[in-house]
Amino acid sequence: MSAPDLPPLHGEDDRWTQAAGGLLLAFGASAVCCYDTEERVRAWNARYLDFFPEMRDLVRVGLPVADTIRPFLQRQHPDAGAAELDAALANALWRHSHEEGPLRYQRADSGRWLELRMFPLPGGRIKLWTDITHSGIGGTDASVLLELLTVTNLGVILHDAQGQLRYANSRFFSEHFLPVLREVPDIRERHVQGDYWRRYSAMFEPSDAFRALCDSRHGGPLPVPVTLRGTTGRSYRIEEHPLHGGIASLWTDVTDLADREQALAQAHAELAGLNAQLRRMALTDPLTALPNRRALELALAQRSDVTAIALVDVDHFKAINDRFGHEAGDTVMAEVASRLAGALAPQELLGRLGGDEFAMLLHSAGEAETLARADALRRAVSARPVDLGHDALVVTVSVGVAAGEASGAPAELLRRADMALLGAKAQGRDMVGHAPAPTPVRAGIADAPSAATADPRLAADVGLEPAALAARHGAQHPVFTRARWAEAQRQGLTLDHYWGWVHYNLGLSAAGDGGATG
User: Fold this and answer.
1) Active site includes 79?
2) Paired sense of beta strands 397-403 and 432-435, if any
3) How far is residue 20's CA from residue 345's CA, in Å, rounded to a whole number?
4) How many helices (H) and strands (E) does the chain have?
5) Got the DSSP string for 395-458?
6) Catalytic hit among 356, 418, 430, 461
7) pLDDT of residue 485
8) Which of 268, 306, 410, 414 is the most exposed place for a label (fewest CB within 10 A)?
9) For the chain, which domains are there?
């Protein structure tokens, strides 16, 4: 039987011609290129130029192998930058020197599937490419798989039952991991997950998920899919399934989904931070940075350890604003807040009710301790002048305190502390007023007269609004002269619906020795 007519080899060395001729007997439809020990081209056939048309005007005897690989990479990856191409070239040269194949990959331009085998020889190396695009019969599983991998962006790695690498979709991995392509085809065995995944260290960022894979001693496929971030900046979902005793590993590019999830998580975190900031703003006084009235109300509703409340009012604050200006008034308020906050004890809470009034939730053992704490706060404010720039002003405060049981009604404590504050201001300011707990009503005196019914002149006042009361009595309301005020405090007989009028007129002397309010 005569030898078949073989496609001619181009070159000048009989050794290469004989060796390549033997290969062509077995692979007549294949492309062949031969290299010497210095990795230079020695011979090639026409099929080589058919498979790699970019080499038609470049290939020549003595051409370094790097100059044959670079045009291929440039055509296969037209959008790759110079650094990526350099890294890919280094990997390809490593594979050229160390691999034997078979390696399968797809041409990006033609869609042709090629299988590469490399044969080392004492005098150099021979590479042989076979077109396997139509190796399967139309409609068979192999043909469908190849067509599927042609049109989908899916990475596939198959290991057999002995852990040997049987297939890797080189097109996917060359497109997605061009600078580190060496890692995929070089993974020949897979037995223990940790040993296997550590080989991918150049391909993935060192996340917790990847470190867990590298530490795993499990031998089978991944129990659950994992998403990893590549060093190229893209994200991949990897899921694995048992296949004929081996493992099928499927890689999907989920960068867009991962980026959206990350963006949503970031937006959620930013929204949560903004909501927290809005909550802080809603509960914080902007001038003093103290809790505001709403925050104090919430604290009163939530805390059960509050045994006393102190209300603090800056003395003659209106006069400070009128004389020095509102900017100086803001300075005074901020300094008073700072001094009060500096004098607070653990578990105590200071807040600004508004205007020139502060409130403190205290935790004290009894009335004597409450009065001592309130006086310490008062003295902390007036201990040194407030610097207003060109002036220094001694600022004083009036304090009203009310003590009670920790489980008592907060509204009652607030009411009594307010009355005590009004009393302190009525008695000259820069002092502590105290509202003792009301005396329990005993049997037989439940019908004791109130301040309104004790004086017949007040019968017509019941139910009147503050403005009507002011028009009726002016500054001469009989119950709230200074003497009657002190008596009303001692008896706890002040009527709630008179508060507004009293607050407005309390600083005025019923006997004619008027004083400024504030």
Assistant:
1) no
2) parallel
3) 94
4) 18, 18
5) --EEEEEEE--TTS-HHHHHHHHHHHHHHHHHTTSSSEEEEPPPPPPPTT-TTPPPHHHHSGGG
6) 356
7) 57
8) 268
9) 1-151 (3.30.450.20), 154-282 (3.30.450), 293-437 (3.30.70.270), 444-518 (no CATH)
